């Protein structure tokens, strides 16, 4: 009998659960993992079981739940679980658990598993702000990251009781996105953007016709949010200028600037981009806007206008490039996105090459759109074009994977100017 190959079997994930109030959210992470075809073994701490019972984890995972190394001794679980895992995710990672892991303690099944794991490890902290900011916690996190462990950035918001601040567990959807990225590309989240400030635009602009109706587009904002999320977890200080999106959770560790119209997006990008290390224009900007706007809702009984008079919206990427060239904006790397459909005479890639030459940005991501591609879907694909004859195809995959490839290319651009801080 031959053993099951890694290509044939579902991904094996160990879900560690620390003893914090956010342990209940691990149930949502578990459900999302199992529903997307992962085989999940839950390994809680004893403290975690004070918040969520073993029966809940067993029912959701279909696997037994143990906390100590003396259960199923014959299977040598404290070694086998880590050896066989494709990914270990710890939700929540408490200050205590981060400290024990950083110092190599192995006093229960979870910390023993973390010592034997040779796969990617994602630890998702949740704790009060004072604990997150304490020097001991910061030192433990730095030590873990230096060893290759991905320690996610916590979100800001409501904590236990009436407290509010940084230390909230990120949304389960964001945790799943990071887990999926690490399963696909284990080295996708290096801390290579530490000390960098990046500005990203996302979503679709809306141009009002009246207080109810508008001209817009099909952008969901997922790609821009993925760019922001990945950049934050790679260590950057991130500003996300967000137009309209579809039910997206604010990425953890990101500063948000909400906008509505193309003109509002233009003003925000010109304001926020000065001094940025990298600017990525991924928002879908409406090409046109109505020349006039009705102050009241246009009624069905009203006589419909013979034609809708439109004006061109500003080309924000072109303006950023021009302002940088004139020395009025200090931007190290400028990247844009181009959504193309192609036609019988010209391919999507050829249109992208032409746009790169015309725009003059440092990098351009070209997406083929239509027929369920790029807009309003979870995944993406395309080509990454850049100065110096850079031309790389980005395979179909999660939008966070495309985001990681973009930040890889931005890092290469930094290196071209000597990597100056």
TrEMBL record:
Residues 198-421 are annotated as: Phosphopantothenate--cysteine ligase. It catalyses: (R)-4'-phosphopantothenate + L-cysteine + CTP = N-[(R)-4-phosphopantothenoyl]-L-cysteine + CMP + diphosphate + H(+); N-[(R)-4-phosphopantothenoyl]-L-cysteine + H(+) = (R)-4'-phosphopantetheine + CO2. Residues 1-197 are annotated as: Phosphopantothenoylcysteine decarboxylase. Binds 1 FMN per subunit. GO terms for biological process: coenzyme A biosynthetic process; pantothenate catabolic process. Keywords: Decarboxylase, Flavoprotein, FMN, Ligase, Lyase, Magnesium, Metal-binding, Multifunctional enzyme. Residues 12-177 form the Flavoprotein domain. Pathway: Cofactor biosynthesis; coenzyme A biosynthesis; CoA from (R)-pantothenate: step 3/5; Cofactor biosynthesis; coenzyme A biosynthesis; CoA from (R)-pantothenate: step 2/5. One of its GO terms (cellular component) is phosphopantothenoylcysteine decarboxylase complex. It comes from the Bacteria. Pfam families: DFP, Flavoprotein. Its cofactor is Mg(2+); FMN. Catalyzes two sequential steps in the biosynthesis of coenzyme A. In the first step cysteine is conjugated to 4'-phosphopantothenate to form 4-phosphopantothenoylcysteine. In the second step the latter compound is decarboxylated to form 4'-phosphopantotheine. Catalyzes two steps in the biosynthesis of coenzyme A. In the first step cysteine is conjugated to 4'-phosphopantothenate to form 4-phosphopantothenoylcysteine, in the latter compound is decarboxylated to form 4'-phosphopantotheine. This is Coenzyme A biosynthesis bifunctional protein CoaBC. It comes from Halosaccharopolyspora lacisalsi. The lineage of its organism: Bacteria, Bacillati, Actinomycetota, Actinomycetes, Pseudonocardiales.
């Amino acid at each position: 009998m031959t053993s099951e190959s890694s290509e044939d079997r579902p991904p094996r994930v160990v879900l560690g659960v620390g003893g914090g109030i956010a342990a209940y959210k691990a149930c949502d992470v578990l459900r999302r993992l199992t529903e997307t075809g992962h085989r999940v073994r839950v390994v809680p701490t004893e403290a975690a079981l004070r918040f969520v019972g073993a029966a809940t984890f067993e029912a959701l995972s279909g696997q037994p739940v143990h906390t100590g190394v003396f259960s199923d001794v014959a299977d040598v679980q404290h070694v086998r679980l880590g050896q066989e895992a494709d990914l270990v995710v710890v939700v929540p990672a408490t200050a205590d658990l981060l400290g024990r892991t950083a110092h190599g303690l192995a006093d229960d099944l979870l910390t023993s598993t973390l010592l034997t794991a040779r796969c990617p490890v994602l630890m998702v902290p949740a704790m009060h702000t004072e604990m997150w900011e304490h020097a001991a916690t910061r030192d433990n996190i730095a030590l873990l990251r230096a060893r290759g462990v991905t320690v996610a950035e916590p979100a800001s918001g409501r904590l236990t009781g009436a407290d509010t601040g940084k230390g909230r567990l990120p949304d389960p959807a964001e945790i799943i996105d990071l887990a999926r990225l690490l399963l696909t590309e284990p080295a996708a989240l290096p801390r290579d953007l530490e000390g960098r400030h990046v500005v990203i635009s996302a979503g679709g602009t809306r141009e009002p016709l009246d207080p109810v109706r508008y001209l817009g587009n099909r952008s969901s904002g997922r790609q821009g949010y993925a760019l922001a999320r990945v950049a934050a977890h790679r260590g950057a200080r991130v500003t996300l200028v967000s137009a309209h999106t579809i039910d997206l959770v604010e990425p953890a560790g990101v500063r948000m600037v909400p906008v509505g119209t193309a003109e509002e997006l233009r003003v925000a990008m010109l304001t926020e981009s000065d001094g940025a290390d990298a600017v990525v224009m991924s928002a879908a900007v409406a090409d046109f806007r109505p020349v006039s706007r009705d102050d009241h809702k246009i009624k069905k009984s009203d006589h419909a206008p013979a034609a809708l008079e439109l004006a061109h919206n500003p080309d924000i990427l072109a303006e950023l490039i021009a302002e940088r060239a004139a020395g009025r904006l200090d931007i190290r790397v400028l990247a844009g996105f181009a959504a193309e459909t192609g036609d019988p005479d010209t391919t999507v890639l050829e249109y992208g090459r032409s746009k790169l030459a015309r725009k003059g940005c440092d990098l351009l991501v070209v997406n083929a759109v239509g027929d369920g591609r790029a807009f309003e879907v979870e995944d993406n694909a395309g080509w990454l074009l850049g100065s110096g004859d850079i031309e790389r195809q980005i395979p179909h995959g999660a939008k966070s994977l495309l985001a990681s490839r973009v930040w890889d290319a931005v890092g290469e651009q930094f290196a071209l100017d000597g990597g100056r801080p």
